[in-house]
Specification:
Blueprint: H1 13-25, H2 28-31, E1 35-39, H3 40-47, H4 49-59, E2 62-66, E3 69-73
Antiparallel strand pairs: 1-3, 2-3
């Protein structure tokens, strides 16, 4: 009995991406209209930038990338650079 999980089929990438998106936007901060932060590498690797942008547009949210971080503003308010 080497590894029980090696027998399981790999999770399709689309399901993993959908779970990641669901997890991101079900965070308490997101639900309350605040901000959430994720690694840009994770967005690119798990979901991909086109799908991520599509989800932002669908929800009416905006996001900024600074270095290795992505900050998502989980509301429709304008974002002003200081």
């Amino acid at each position: 009995m080497d590894d029980l999980f090696s027998l399981a089929a790999p999770v399709p990438a689309t399901i993993e991406a959908e779970r990641w998106i669901e997890h991101l936007f079900s965070a308490r901060a997101a639900i309350n209209g605040h901000v959430v932060r994720r690694k840009a590498r994770d967005v690119e690797r798990i979901v991909g930038w086109p799908r991520f942008r599509q989800e932002l547009r669908r929800r009416g949210y905006s996001a900024v990338r600074n270095g290795a971080q992505v900050v998502v503003f989980c509301n429709a308010l304008p974002v002003h650079k200081l």
